[in-house]
Amino acid sequence: MEKAQSFHGASQENQGCKTFFFNMLSGYHSVKLCNWLLCNSFYELDSLALNLVPGIIPVGPLLSGSQLGCQIGSFWPDDSTCLSWLDKQPVGSVIYVSFGSTSIFNQQQFDELALGLELIGLPFLWVIRSDITNEALSEFLDGIRKRIADHGKIVDWAPQEEVLAHPSTACFISHCGWNSTLEGISMAVPFLCWPYFTDQFQNKSYVCDVRKVGLGLNPDENGIVTRHEIDTKIKALLSDDVIKTKALKLKEMAKKSVSEGGSSLKNFESFIEQIKH
């Protein structure tokens, strides 16, 4: 873990934007060969961007893992014990922390995040993938688990849609991957945005500056998001009724788009008809 880069910083953001730009360019010629270009979004959420891509078909939000009774797109087995733990927490009290399948920390950043979550004094559910832990980090996590046993829970992987939909979940500290962003939007959960690379920085800007359903976590001069930054932003987010209201409106828009007569459902039905013919 000592060799891992800091989780967040201006230089990393610039590099992420460059990588995203070149990936888009490299995929441009492949896109031109497609008969259909479907995307996991919905028109009411992202109309300005969608209008820039001729022929794109938004059919999202693509949720339904829990409805189908099976894991959809999970990289690791879900730890469903976190759901029974959530059942025991007060409504709107739990901070959910998950950074997806690729993000990593260095040890100092792990320390600051753990201390920040303890500082706020609210129950939290923290997903820490077992594939990124070494011996030193495992010992660190054992100590954290003992200290937070009365108000926190750490799991390897969580059934995220169900966690975000749970009435106890108050906010989502997220890397702003697009799937996670859509899931949070669809469940009306306010965001604390902590992007790692590529499109996650654009998604953060969209969440915080365009739709205004979250706040960004900013690193200090050493590229570390401190415990005090985490504590301050969580308190600000949970006390912001405007953000909560906007999040509820986005949830209704998302639900309407995949309901009868909604834009995404119409697009999907049209796509099926085109395939048939």
What report would you give on this structure?
The chain is of the alpha/beta class and 277 residues long. The protein has one domain: Rossmann fold. 48% of the residues lie in helices and 11% in strands. It contains eleven helices and eight strands. The strands form two sheets. A six-stranded parallel sheet has the order 5-4-3-6-7-8, with helices on both faces. A two-stranded parallel sheet has the order 1-2. Helix 7 (178-186) links the parallel strand 6 and strand 7 (191-193). It is globular, with a radius of gyration of 19 Å. The termini are far apart. Mean pLDDT is 85; it is low at 1-10 and 66-71.
Topology of this protein?
Layout: H1 10-32, E1 37-39, H2 43-50, E2 56-58, H3 81-87, E3 94-98, H4 107-120, E4 124-127, H5 135-147, E5 152-155, H6 160-165, E6 169-174, H7 178-186, E7 191-193, H8 200-210, E8 214-216, H9 227-238, H10 241-257, H11 263-276
Parallel strand pairs: 1-2, 3-4, 3-6, 4-5, 6-7, 7-8
